[in-house]
Amino acid sequence: MRIRDLIYEVAGIFHPDHKLHLLLDRCGRRMTELEVNTLREYFEYLTIKPMRQIELVALLNEITIGETCFFRNQPQLDALRQIVIPKVLQARSKLPQRRLRVWSAGCSTGEEPYTLSMLMLEEARGRLKDWTVEILATDLNERSLTYARNAIYGAHSTRHLAPYYRQKYFSPVADQLQLRTVARGSVTFSRLNLSDDVRMTFMKNLDVVFCCNVLIYFDLASKRRVIQHLYNNLQPGGYLFLGHSESLYKVSDEFQLVHLPGATAYVKEPGHKGERRAL
After folding, report:
1. 74-278 adopts what CATH topology?
2. CB of 103 closer than 8 Å to CB of 189
3. What residues does each domain of the chain span?
């Protein structure tokens, strides 16, 4: 199917035969919108019609709809605060600039980077006092990014919010909740295709990367390219978090797997290639 090949070439997202029906369903939605009757005609919309770039983005928006919520993986977040941040700060303590850079790669509708922002604000009273925190949030889906910038969420997204965070960082808007400005200031949203090698090379000097439930979209070759970029962009001693069911097995052996209480992560630690370390 030529549309499948195009999506893979542009975004690194591969639909194997047993998932081809999902791609056909997404194409069908766009074909209905455009009043297009055949896949051949729709392929022309994606490749030779004047609005081809706009339509390609629209199709990618349909393909990359993600499901997430605030505080989705609590053990991972606890490990971030209790172990990872202290280790990163210790490694950076001798640098003249006290800056922590965190990247939410594949941020979807913003719940993950905003969760990280709230946690960093809590740490600002202690470990992160006098530190500047930057949270970069990127996604391929423009609709998701627009939703994230509005920062208004319903019951499903906020189902894991503890009363403390709900009361401190959110304001009621009709039957929903809007994140307050204080928790939005450190987060910068932008559209980024993780298969764009040029753009990926500019995501430098990162301390922590969250790339959770993103690799599932890619085949092995695309995973290896993305992970190599993440490795290159992390500072020595920086950490990579994946989704709880994801791993770098057969993808990369440059990161060191670390076992954290209730979670795992990968660290860019020169000098221990191939070892598995427990913290």
Report:
1. Rossmann fold (3.40.50)
2. no
3. 2-63, 74-278
Q: Which two tokens stand for residue 83?
A: 């172990």
Per-chain mean pLDDT for the chain? 90
pTM, full prediction: 0.86
Angle 153-159-165 from CA coordinates, rounded to 5°: 80
- What would the pLDDT profile of 248-260 be if each residue is shown by its tens digit? 999 999 999 999 9
Confidence of residue 273 (pLDDT cuts 50, 70, 90): very low
Q: Helices marked H in the chain — which ranges?
A: 2-11, 20-34, 39-47, 52-63, 74-79, 85-92, 111-123, 142-150, 163-169, 197-200, 220-233
Helices (H) and strands (E) in the chain, counts: 11, 11
| The token pair that represents 220 in the structure block | 């092995």
| φ/ψ bin of 213: left (φ > 0), alpha (ψ from -120 to 50), beta (otherwise) | left
